[in-house]
Design goal:
Elements (H helix, E strand, L loop, with lengths): L3 H8 L2 H4 L5 H9 L5 H35 L11 E6 L11 E2 L19 E9 L9 E7 L6 E9 L4 H13 L15 E7 L17 E3 L8 E3 L1 E5 L1 E6 L5 E3 L6 E5 L9 E4 L5 E7 L2 E6 L7 E6 L15 E2 L6 H8 L7 H10 L6 E9 L26 E9 L7 H15 L3 E7 L1
Parallel strand pairs: 19-20
Antiparallel strand pairs: 1-9, 1-17, 2-9, 3-6, 3-8, 4-5, 4-7, 5-6, 10-16, 11-12, 12-15, 13-16, 14-15, 18-19
Helix pairs in contact: 3-4
Amino acid sequence: MDTQKDYQKAAGLGGVMEYPFDFQSYIQERLRDIRDLDERHFAKEVLLNGMGKAIQAMERKYEDLQERVYQEIEPEHNRYEISMTVIDRRHFDPTNHTLFPVREEDLAEDRGLGVEGRAGELYVGTVFSQWDGSVEGEFGGAVSVGAGEEPRKAVFLARPSRKYRKHIEALYDIFRANFIPWTTVNTAYLDRFYDIFLKLPQEEEKEMKEPLAWKDCEIDFGGLGGGIRYDMIPVWNIERIVFKSTDFVIPCIDGIYYEHEFLTESMGGADGYLIEPNEEILEIRHEKGRIIIKSLRETFESWQALRLAQSPTEYSLDYRLPCLTNRKKDSFFRRYSGRHGGNLMTKHDLFRRIMELDIEDYMEVTGYQILEDAQAFPMEEGMNWFIRDELFPMDQRKLLVLEFKEKRPGYFLNKGIIRFVISQMQLEISEYRCVGVTV
């Protein structure tokens, strides 16, 4: 299949796309009407060998453009699923090609890079909480600082860690730059990381400027101590790739720009790839088996891409906690509704959308209510905090209260799973403000 007509025929588009007028045959027919042979010979040279070749060259350009436009198909969304878990930093396996650190700095010795406290606070470290969610937001307690017979008494503050949030926000911007539809990332694990700061008496602030280590502090978490895990880091299925220009450079039609090919098919057809935008990149276009990057630069260095590994997650030694994903189960109804519009019509459709999410091990939706009083439930931040809907303010919408039954009562991830469902449903439902409760 090496011609444009063969491509159109195989795609079933020949009757729509194929240009119906044959200039070659038309010119030859008109030449027969010229009776004078010398004049016919002159016209043949001008029309067939001159104008005819120009027409052929123009048709080839239009055919190439037509093929490139029709190859710019909608990417397969299941190549962009994101999974995440939490591991002990000491057990990180660099040979595992399905899970990578959310934050590369977590593998460094100085893991406090980029973490800043308020005035008079010293960063101690970050902990992961596995309590049942009865404590939220900032909390504090007593801490003993230093070794010896008389350690100093101080106060610590545990604050929800924000160092991972910027990576989710950046990922959303990359999805937008690549024109890939966004699906809520399940951040239930990230929401359970707390940065620990030491609040020093004012007279001791000048004495201690260097970050402290866990060995220097004895923190009293009270009844929460049994759920605290030290030296844990989140990992997900996103690998950062640095690449540079290759020989695959296609000049654009006007000759001003260059189009660089990032060949995804040769790198692993099942995985999803995203190009991270930068000031040198003007446009990113996904086509079958490749990504076209439009730029003014003919050569480049150190552009970055993300590989979203879609193969089954490998659990290395001592990887114990389950993976949370934003995967959606495939079904006939999902494909049909996606092709014919996504309007919410029935209770069955609502429940189907919820249970298509990867939550069946934790939650089951049992019912719903629609309430007129928007003040019945306070506003809570969802997992898509960076997406603003200014057209229809949330506080003026009716409430859609979704009721869930816990399959594992008291499990520390349950509340995060509900927030994930509510956040994704809010992306799909604009008529109501979504709320989740357990029954």
